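Example 9 (inverse folding). The structure is encoded as follows.
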């Protein structure tokens, strides 16, 4: 369980995050959703430990991680650009995540992640030979072999489209279920958040606009901002979104 309470953050005297509180359970996917500059990436970095909070607390299970450095939190992140090493093939990129974690993961476990993500045919390929979806899966495998307690993803679908995007969405949902891996995703795309998350935290100008399940947000938007951001950005009618959810839960 990840629990944040009354998180605040300023940069150069400007408030970036103000009184952020939420809680998500083990194996749940939560999307941080909001327009550019809303503070969602800063919040992701606070959870990871790349930057510290000015006030408030961050807890994972029974542990207070507020002042714990990033390397000791046991969390890991897949960045938007995948951050793969072009001089290494796909397999060596996956193993790179284990360079300082010898003994924690054996060869059979590494192979389990490779098989789960269907990467076996691509292991000897150079990074430049991989498609966008294949690069994303290599980045996920490299992160998963480190056995993170929490998985963070920064705009994981932004460079993908069509069938590839849908495939990665399904894989992320499968990862959370299969490995009971709590997952936090940053996205600016309401459709992504609504169709792949258990919970959504909508941020506007550094404050929580709404926190709840996708169905809650669709049925009961907290204010005009939420409704405008969700409905108008998708450029579809409310009924079409409800129809989408009808298909998902049928």
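The amino acid assigned to each position is listed next.
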């Amino acid at each position: 369980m990840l629990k944040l309470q009354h998180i605040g953050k300023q940069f150069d005297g400007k408030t970036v995050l103000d009184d952020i509180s939420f809680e998500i359970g083990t194996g749940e996917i939560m999307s941080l959703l909001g327009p550019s500059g809303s503070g969602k990436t800063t919040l992701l970095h606070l959870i990871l430990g790349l930057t510290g909070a000015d006030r408030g607390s961050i807890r994972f299970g029974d542990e207070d991680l507020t002042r714990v450095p990033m390397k000791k939190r046991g969390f890991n992140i897949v960045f938007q650009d995948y951050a793969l090493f072009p001089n290494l093939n796909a397999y060596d990129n996956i193993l790179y995540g284990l360079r300082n974690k010898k003994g924690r993961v054996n060869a059979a476990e590494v192979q389990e992640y490779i098989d789960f993500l269907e990467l076996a045919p691509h292991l000897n390929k150079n990074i430049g030979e991989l498609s966008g979806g294949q690069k994303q899966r290599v980045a996920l495998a490299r992160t998963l072999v480190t056995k993170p307690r929490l998985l963070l993803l920064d705009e994981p679908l932004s460079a993908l489209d069509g069938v590839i995007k849908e495939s990665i969405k399904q894989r992320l949902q499968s990862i959370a279920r299969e490995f009971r891996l709590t997952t936090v995703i940053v996205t600016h795309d309401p459709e992504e958040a609504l169709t792949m998350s258990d919970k959504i935290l909508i941020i506007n100008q550094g404050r929580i606009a709404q926190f709840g399940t996708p169905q809650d947000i669709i049925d009961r938007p907290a204010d005009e901002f939420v409704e405008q951001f969700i409905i108008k950005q998708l450029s579809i009618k409310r009924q079409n979104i409800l129809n989408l959810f009808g298909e998902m839960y049928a």
